């Protein structure tokens, strides 16, 4: 059996098995949001729903967006997979702007589970087994494109679990 050089093995061990590269979301403002544009920075992807009991977390997501600015992407992904989203993207955008003063990036209404799940969520399921069990589940992507952590709906955006991990990635 051929021996691989130690340096090659070290590089291979440091390379993530798969990275959040090439994923694009349709933006609620038109155009696309490409995760590749955020390579080298933390990305927090959150499936949201305007009519969910956890919708108050929009304030926390906006706070993260304001706090980290262009050093990290905080991305809201409205989804009606749990039957708690408004009828269309225009209604979602207006509701979130009027109710929560949202300026953070948002996608159009997107499937996050099942056969129709967006490729990002299908990838997260394949990599970690994570499937959103409800609205406001969170996927934290490390600067190398790997999944750093997933969080359920009860974990607040401003929690030490989330903020601490993002801050550590920015150091």
Automatic annotation (TrEMBL):
Sorted keywords for this record are: Oxidoreductase, Peroxidase, Signal
User: Is Signal among the key words of this record?
Assistant: yes
Residues annotated as signal peptide: 1-19
Q: Which GO terms describe its molecular function?
A: peroxidase activity
* Domain Thioredoxin as annotated: residue spans: 14-171
The family database entries (Pfam families) matched by this protein are listed as:
GSHPx
What's the family?
Belongs to the glutathione peroxidase family.
Q: Which PANTHER family match?
A: GLUTATHIONE PEROXIDASE (PTHR11592:SF78)
**What protein name does the entry list?**
Glutathione peroxidase
Give the organism the record lists.
Answer: Tabrizicola soli
């Amino acid at each position: 059996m051929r021996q691989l050089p130690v340096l090659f093995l070290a590089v291979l061990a440091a390379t993530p098995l798969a990275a959040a590269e090439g994923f694009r979301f349709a933006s609620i403002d038109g155009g696309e949001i490409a995760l590749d544009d955020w390579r080298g920075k933390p990305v927090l992807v959150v499936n949201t729903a305007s009519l969910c009991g956890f919708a108050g977390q929009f304030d926390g997501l906006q706070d993260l967006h304001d706090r980290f600015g262009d050093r990290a992407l905080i991305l809201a992904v409205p989804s009606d997979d749990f039957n708690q989203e408004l009828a269309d993207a225009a209604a979602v955008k207006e509701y979130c702007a009027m109710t929560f003063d949202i300026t953070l990036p948002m996608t159009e209404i997107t499937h996050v589970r099942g056969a129709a799940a967006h490729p990002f969520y299908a990838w997260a399921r394949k990599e970690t087994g994570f499937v959103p069990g409800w609205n406001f589940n969170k996927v934290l992507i490390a600067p190398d494109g790997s999944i750093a952590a997933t969080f359920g709906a009860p974990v607040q955006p401003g929690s030490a679990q989330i903020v601490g991990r993002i801050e550590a990635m920015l150091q």
